[in-house]
Amino acid sequence: xxxxxxxxxxxxxxxxxxxxxxxxxxxxxxxxxxxxxxxxxxxxxxxxxxxxxxxxxxxxxxxxxxxxxxxxxxxxxxxxxxxxxxxxxxxxxxxxxxxxxxxxxxxxxxxxxxxxxxxxxxxxxxxxxxxxxxxxxxxxxxxxxxxxxxxxxxxxxxxxxxxxxxxxxxxxxxxxxxxxxxxxxxxxxxxxxxxxxxxxxxxxxxxxxxxxxxxxxxxxxxxxxxxxxx
Length: 230
Ligand SMILES: Cc1cc2nc3c(=O)[nH]c(=O)nc-3n(C[C@H](O)[C@H](O)[C@H](O)COP(=O)(O)O)c2cc1C
Prior knowledge:
Elements: H1 24-38, H2 54-64, E1 76-81, H3 84-105, H4 108-114, H5 125-128, E2 131-138, E3 140-142, E4 148-150, H6 154-171, E5 175-176, H7 185-190, E6 197-206, H8 222-225
The structure holds flavin mononucleotide.
């Protein structure tokens, strides 16, 4: 495991925290410009097939891997797929599940909130985008003694890592879609992952197509999503 794992007979290793304090005016200007950029992020469902270098995908995964995680167990694997045959197989299986979801399984109250997004079971983004990154969450880990044991807060940890991945993609001038074909078990099989890894998100990454359109959504105002006690 890639951590300074403390064995029971060893002292934990600590290093000095690297922290560079910023002048107050720089803090506010960086906070403002980060927000100004992040508010331009949108989920794209229409991708161009323009290629994207593997280096950019690696950097997004490295950024995601900087996320905090419960007990530093880093309970994630990112599987990046550009192989066209594999993307086709993933698309076929995802569309099969999604067709059943949209035609047979979808509860009315779920349909009501998806309706404004205009989504359906056709998932051309999986084959159009040059990369599809599937994030797997580990529900178990191998202990130093070789036995399997649980991970802790893996949902929360992977959610944070996904947020960093999505932010990194936006920051590098690309687009992604947080796709959750339901259920996602087929991804473990197609991508050959072990039983304790659970596909959590399927993230096509690329440039949006020229004719990409997004729903005209409104985000909550600060006072609708926060409370301050001072
Ligand atoms: C956990 C999660 C699951 C999502 N699943 C899907 C999905 O399966 N299909 C889809 O088209 N969009 C999916 N989305 C994207 C949301 O619909 C989108 O983020 C939301 O409408 C807000 O739009 P924005 O990202 O452009 O701000 C998902 C987003 C999240 C965070």
